[in-house]
Amino acid sequence: MPILNKIITTALPFIPKAIVGQVAKKYIAGVHLSDGVAAVERINKKGIKATMDLLGEDVKNADETDLIKKIIISIIQKIRANNLDSHVSVKPTQLGLKIDKELCYRNLKEIIAEADRLGIFIRIDMEDAATTDDTLAMYRRVTSEGFRNTGVVIQAYMHRSADDVRLLVKNKINIRLCKGIYNESPAIAYKDRQQIRYNYLLLLKLIIESGSFAAIATHDEYLLKNAYEIIKKNNLKKEQYEFQMLLGVREKRRDSIVNDDHNMRIYIPFGEQWYAYSMRRLKENPHMAWYITKAVFIR
Length: 299
Known about the structure:
This protein is of the alpha/beta class and 299 residues long.
């Protein structure tokens, strides 16, 4: 099966975009802001929170970062205007991190300031390892200016993450904990699945025991079950943590977590960059990619 998975993921770039779109539409809200809003409204009606995520990263044109900033601000304003229960996720490379750090910071600060005015939380997303130090520096800088409506992401597969968490939780912050999806070197990232799981649980305990807010972002059943135990052992209140999943993934399990009276937040990705996002997610999940491959032959 691993050999078949490798063949499938290698073949993905040659699969027609329309076929990818048919399968990916379950996991992408759509292209337009209105699509994202509609998806959040559907999720909210189920008693589930959301995070709106404008797709796209690694922007190389300064003018484009200004446009993206304006779109993200319009997302924030739309959330408030429609009284949605939603955060917003931003990627530093969307805002110019790899062009000019000061440009990125100005864009980020303007977004967070508008969100603060309207009572919206902004999640500063974590990208590849080359951006980790700068991303954490951006977070520390914006919070040093008094903004509290923001939090960061820590990736459990990174060797450095325990040290990062220990520093971050000194200020009792809001941390989204995920496994990590970028293809990093074994010199800086764990590759063994069980080792990543062990580190995830170590980090989760550090976050919770510090009194910080834990956003438990995973679809892994092993991690979900252990998180339940950690929550129970530490006698956490609902407002001290939440589970997070991606749109369209493990929906029955998502609903069971909600039925168990835990807070759940779903990431709602949307935007014109849906194809690149879909290809990355499909490479992570060859089982899903297999359905696309079959669809090609059925055609």
